[in-house]
Structure formats: C-alpha cells, structure tokens
C-alpha cells in the first residue's frame, strides 16, 4: 500500500494553502495585475489624448475591464476629481492636474485648516459607505493628520468607529487603494497594509491660527495678539492621538463582537 506523507498533496498540481490553492492564488494575482495595468493604460492615454469623453462600454471593451469593476474605478476617479460622470453612461476626463485642486477644496470644506476642528469632525463616519465617500475619507486622513503613510486596518477601524461596518470598510479600502495606486496617487509599502500618498498629491493646506475679534480684521493687531497658543505641530499631534484612540477603541469593540474562536481540541 502506498503511504502518503503529510507533506504530500492529493492534488499533485495544486498546492493547498487554506481553502485556496496556490494555482488559484497565482491566477488571482495575475488578474489583479492585469486590472491595475488596464487602469494605468487608460489614465496614460486619457492624459495624452485631446478627446475627453468616454463611454462605459468603450472603456470596458477597450481595456477589458468588467462593467461592475468599471463603476468602482470611475467612482474612485470621480471622488478625486479626475473625471466627471455625465447623465448618460459616459464620463468626461478632467485630468490628474485637477486632483490637487479637489484636495484643497475638500480640506477647506471639511475644516482641515481650522485649528479647533478635531479629526472626528473632519473625517466623519456614516452608516452608508460608498467607494467615493471612502476614497475622500482616506485622503482626508492623510492630509488632516499630515502624514504620508497610513495603515489600512487602522484607517478602517477609525472610519467604522460608530457604524459597526469594519469588515466592509476594510474590504472597500483595499479595492480603493489598489485603484489609487494604479492611477498613481498612492503606493503600497513593503509592510503589509501600509500605503503612502505620493509627494505630488500631498497637498496640505496650512492650519489657520488667527482669531477674528469682533470689529477687527483677523490679521489686525488685536486678533493676532489673541490668537491661540497652540501651534500646528500641537494641533496635528492631537489629531493623530485622537485618531489612534478612536481606532483602538473600535478595534477593542470588534474583538469582543467577533472573538477569535479557539482551535478545537481533539479529546481521546
């Protein structure tokens, strides 16, 4: 009788790892790389060509991207200001040069430049989460915390701090960062889950410390003498601390909601 060792697979052409074979994992990796390359090819061509109007069918057929994934890509691109959706199933390409303008606008609208605005107000979390909304929230985390690198899991814990949708948030953020990397906005680091915003898009607006005294300009002697003592470094440090506290608290809650089940012990 032939003895099969514990290192021998019943499937000689497939190495098993968990519930996914190595063959399936390699296939998925190839599909992911092709997906990224398709996005990069579209962005490069759209930046070079004069025609700015594209239909969803055209994008799907030309770049071999499934239609459902086209929607995800366009939602992310629209959230960063690179394109605009039209009434029909078409988009207008606005260009990567428009991204910095959108980021400045996003920071002003959410009060990143306001010294007394805490991180939980700048980056609110909502029950309804979309690809576009999470994309902007991720970028706001980079800019309001004035950091070029973030851990995706920490961001997910922070963004789901009250809506109890950590797993969904994490899954979508992985998709978003993958798309943003293909566009050239961020890049993944060697550490698993760590992403870094590229220098050309790290467009941080300065935090205003001026206080407007009634009847005086915010830049008058009276206003300048009464400005808050806290400086930019102190404000950013507080925001980073609040971010980590909120993320850790949610992580703690998630642990008790979905505890790790101990491995079954075989009894004799």
TrEMBL record:
Residues 33-95 form the E2F/DP family winged-helix DNA-binding domain. It is found in: Nucleus. InterPro entries: E2F, E2F_WHTH_DNA-bd_dom, WH-like_DNA-bd_sf, WH_DNA-bd_sf. GO terms for cellular component: RNA polymerase II transcription regulator complex. Pfam families: WHD_E2F_TDP. Keywords: DNA-binding, Nucleus, Transcription, Transcription regulation. The keyword DNA-binding applies. One of its GO terms (molecular function) is DNA-binding transcription factor activity, RNA polymerase II-specific. Its main location: nucleus. Belongs to the E2F/DP family. PANTHER family: TRANSCRIPTION FACTOR E2F (PTHR12081), TRANSCRIPTION FACTOR E2F2-RELATED (PTHR12081:SF18). This is E2F/DP family winged-helix DNA-binding domain-containing protein. It comes from Tritrichomonas foetus. The lineage of its organism: Eukaryota, Metamonada, Parabasalia, Tritrichomonadida, Tritrichomonadidae.
């Amino acid at each position: 009788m032939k003895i099969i060792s514990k290192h021998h697979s019943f499937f000689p052409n497939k190495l098993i790892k968990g519930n996914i074979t190595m063959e399936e994992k390699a296939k998925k990796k190839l599909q992911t790389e092709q997906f990224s390359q398709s996005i990069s090819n579209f962005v490069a061509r759209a930046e070079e060509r004069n025609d700015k109007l594209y239909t969803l069918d055209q994008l799907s057929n030309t770049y071999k991207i499934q239609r459902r994934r086209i929607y995800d890509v366009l939602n992310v691109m629209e959230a960063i200001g690179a394109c605009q959706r039209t009434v029909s199933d078409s988009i207008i390409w606005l260009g990567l040069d428009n991204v910095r303008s959108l980021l400045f606008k996003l920071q002003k609208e959410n009060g990143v430049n306001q010294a007394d605005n805490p991180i939980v107000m700048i980056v609110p979390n909502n029950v309804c989460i979309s690809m576009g909304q999470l994309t902007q929230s991720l970028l706001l985390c980079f800019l309001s915390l004035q950091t070029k690198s973030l851990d995706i899991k920490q961001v997910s814990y922070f963004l789901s701090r009250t809506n109890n949708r950590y797993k969904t948030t994490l899954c979508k953020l992985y998709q978003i960062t993958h798309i943003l990397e293909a566009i050239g906005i961020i890049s993944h680091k060697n550490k698993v889950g760590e992403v870094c915003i590229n220098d050309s898009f790290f467009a941080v607006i300065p935090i205003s410390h001026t206080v407007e005294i009634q009847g005086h300009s915010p830049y008058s002697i009276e206003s300048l003498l009464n400005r808050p003592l806290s400086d930019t470094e102190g404000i950013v440090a507080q925001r980073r601390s609040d971010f980590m506290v909120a993320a850790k608290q949610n992580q703690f809650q998630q642990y008790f909601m979905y505890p790790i089940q101990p491995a079954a012990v075989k009894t004799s």
